[in-house]
Design brief:
The chain is of the alpha+beta class. It folds into 3 domains: 59 residues, Nucleic acid-binding proteins (OB fold (Dihydrolipoamide Acetyltransferase, E2P), Beta Barrel); 63 residues, 5' to 3' exonuclease, C-terminal subdomain (DNA polymerase, domain 1), CATH 1.10.150.20; 50 residues, Ubiquitin-associated (UBA) domain (Helicase, Ruva Protein, domain 3, Orthogonal Bundle). Helix content is 44%, strand content 20%. The protein contains 9 helices and 5 strands; from the N terminus they run E-E-E-H-E-E-H-H-H-H-H-H-H-H. Strands 1-2-3-5-4 form a 5-stranded mixed barrel. Strand 4 and strand 5 form a beta hairpin. The N and C termini lie far apart (46 Å). One of its GO terms (cellular component) is cytoplasm. Its main location: cytoplasm. It is found in: Cytoplasm. This is Holliday junction branch migration complex subunit RuvA.
């Protein structure tokens, strides 16, 4: 199996990079954020996962080993294949996914293209004990972070979901008064409701 690829970016697309490794161009499918960080002609190093099918060998690349491990773990959920797992990491970071699963935040999970309510519930159930706990993420007892820190966590999470920094900051400002305790998960849900209006 190919666990990592290091070489020169020969071509960069929206969600793929061709990496020249000693004269061999390897097509690596990536989340858009990873492809956006690569530049044609520049060195690139990716943690990879190779998916073997009867008629294909496909390489998926990630910025960190943690992202790759999350990609592989997501595929242990029934009904989640490589494309959906890649879509999850295109919308959520590993920490955001862990937080959403720990809080059973179905609304956040259904933001991922290809995941409906039932799929999100299945992901929350099947990954609950497999993903690492994230500091600041709500659990069944509710974990709080300091008043200033939760706003930064929620803003970063919203940006990771595809909202602009301004949209995210405005939404966080609107829910700030109600969430002084710093419950990140409930604040994130409230901010998403604001943005959905």
């Amino acid at each position: 199996m190919i666990a990592s690829v290091t070489g020169t970016a020969q071509h960069v697309g929206l969600d793929r990079v061709v990496v020249d490794v000693h004269g061999i161009g390897l097509l690596v499918h990536t989340p858009p954020s990873v492809a956006a960080s690569c530049r044609t002609g520049s060195p690139v190093a990716l943690s990879t996962s190779m998916v073997v099918r009867e008629d294909s060998l496909t390489i998926y690349g990630f910025a960190t080993a943690g992202e790759r491990d999350t990609f592989e773990l997501a595929q242990t959920v029934s009904g989640v294949g490589p494309r959906v797992a890649l879509a999850i990491l295109s919308v959520l970071s590993p920490d955001e996914l862990s937080a959403a699963v720990a809080a059973e935040d179905i609304a956040t999970l259904t933001k991922v293209p290809g995941i409906g309510k039932k799929g999100a519930e299945r992901i929350a159930l099947e990954l609950r004990d497999k993903l690492p706990r994230v500091p600041g993420a709500a659990t069944a007892t509710g974990t709080a972070v300091t008043a200033g820190a939760w706003q930064e966590h929620v803003t970063d999470a919203l940006v990771g979901l595809g909202y602009s920094t301004k949209q995210s900051s405005d939404a966080v400002a609107k829910v700030a008064d109600e969430h002084g305790s710093g419950d990140v998960s409930s604040a994130l849900r409230a901010a998403l409701q604001v943005l959905a209006r």
